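Something for you to look into today, if you have time. What I am after is a single protein written out in full by you. I want to see for myself how the chain folds. Could you add the entry underneath, on a fresh line?
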Amino acid sequence: MESKRQQKFSRLIQKELAEIFQREVPHLFEGAYISVSVVRVSPDLGLARVYLSVMLAKNKETLLLEIRANTKTIRHLLAQRIKSQVRVVPELVFYLDDSAEYAAQIEKLFSNLDIPPADEEDSSEEDGKKNDQ
């Protein structure tokens, strides 16, 4: 469980990185829309794991490699924005957030299930058994 300090720091980094991806470096990533879905910070605030949601990208894995190649530039831009609020600018490690695709996949599985409705006789028999106990 994260401390209040970690949570506040995570929110600050998430907000600032989102603005960086939207306003300052979109030209580096071929017009892909990148949003910061979650930031998890280590207890010493020295490492930030940043989970990104990507849209309008041809290949998400290639884009992630490109983001990782530009980590130094992104960290520098982050440092310029938060230097007056923090002592140490954390190391950034980027990951793809696939929770939306996972949820869509689970939803698709549920929609393909064919569950027959319960028989009324079965439900009344079960009720009778519960009353007997």
Notes: The two ends are 43 Å apart (CA to CA). The helical segments are 4-24, 60-69, 71-82, 99-112, 120-132. The chain has a mean pLDDT of 85. The chain is about 55% helix and 20% strand.
